[in-house]
Amino acid sequence: MSNNKSLLAVRGMNDILPPDSSQWITIEVHARKHFEQYGYNEVRLPILESTNLFERGIGEDTDIVEKEMYTFLDKKERSLTLRPEMTASCVRAYIQHHVYKHETTSRWYYMGPMFRYERMQSGRYRQFHQIGVEAFGVTSPSLDAEMIEMLYRFYVNLGISNLTMNINSVGSDKDRNVYRTVIVERLEPYKEELCTNCQRRLTTNTLRILDCKIKKCIEIVTHLPPLSQYLSTESKAYFDFVQESLSLMNTPYALNPSLVRGLDYYTSIVFECAVTQEKTSILAGGGRYDNFVEQLGGVSTSAVGFAMGTERTLMAMPSHKNNASLDVFIVHYGDHAKTQAIQIAQTLRNINLCVGVEHRSTSLKSQLKQANKLNAIYVIIIGDDELQHNSVTLKTMKTGTEHSILQSELKNKLKELLA
Ligand code: HAM
């Protein structure tokens, strides 16, 4: 029995078809080039990981771990999870391959699908894509600043400039402990008004309350003093250095004392990149996470990184026409021309040209329409006349000009024209 419903993609997971895929390639090519300029190399890691990697890494009290993970048992009853983000996987791989033994600092970038079972809305999907970077082994505010500058420059070079780079410091472990005590004290009188999760968080993971999305909790939390008031002298100096470096690099930023981020692993600097004055506007986020490697069983290693959402980046990009194009499209008419057309296509592909050829026997007019649709730069027309003279007609699509050329000269002529 057939059921067409079961043939649809899973809700919240999108197919990416041409011509849209060409914009994805634009972003991915841009990312590779951009990050490699800063000395980052690509890592490719599994999409599935043991569930406890994310529970221990991201934090059991976070929205991601509490509600959003795609978790299931495999045939041997092991609990596996489709990665909801990639920082935890990078840390796992960094530890597993003893990377710190071979190099003192490591700079990685990655791109790929992530999975979160979230409420669907514009710019929020259940399978989405991230492009991210992680740098291991450097504790220096100049690296935090370089990361923020690298993120900002990535977007500006992509044509997105209406950005706000929000930055904050969540301080050291000690700073957060002091702040935790303050929050517990201040929130105690409002305990009953908090959501049940936040009531529990008061004794388990207090700082998560600052990231609760429930309206009442947000209202109560707004009246708390910001964490920035409880930063130690060292944490403040670190944060100041980051700001000074950003100014020196002409990277605009905005201080956002309420920025805490939705993952537990951050220490010190956190940042988010938002499209100015838009609602679903967070394009990217990241920060320093100096305890994470040790917390997952590795040698104490400081680290900092960020990830951006590819779908959201695409939404923010100035829309441009599909500019994927063919160098040449070959059209043919008459009984024998098709075989010749296919041979010419092969010859031209051998010199690395992008060549399309019409395999159906349709009219010349409809083949030319097809060439236009595919954005071909040149069209080669071959019919009985051309066959007789071992020639082709070469048409420049932009100007419409046509001229006859011998087949033996075609390769060199096109090489010259397309150089
Ligand atoms: P995150 O803020 O959870 O951070 O995600 C980073 C970006 O992924 C977001 O700013 C957003 O653009 C995109 N994103 C997240 N969830 C969705 C969704 N459901 N649909 C569409 N886009 C989404 C992290 O994942 C950290 N691992 C970043 C990091 C790297 N921190 C340090 N290193």
What does this structure look like?
The protein is an alpha+beta fold and 419 residues long. The protein has helices at 20-37, 51-58, 63-68, 87-96, 99-102, 141-157, 173-187, 196-201, 215-222, 233-248, 292-295, 310-316, 337-350, 364-373, 384-388, 407-418, and strands at 41-42, 48-50, 70-73, 79-82, 106-115, 127-136, 163-169, 254-255, 269-275, 282-288, 303-309, 328-332, 355-357, 378-382, 391-396, 402-406. It has an 8-stranded mixed β-sheet with strand order 1-5-6-11-10-9-7-8. Helix 6 (141-157) packs parallel to helix 10. The chain is elongated, with a radius of gyration of 28 Å. The protein starts with 19 loop residues before the first helix and ends with a helix. 34% of the residues are buried. The structure holds histidyl-adenosine monophosphate. The site of histidyl-adenosine monophosphate (HAM) has 26 residues, from strand 6, strand 10, strand 11 and helix 12.
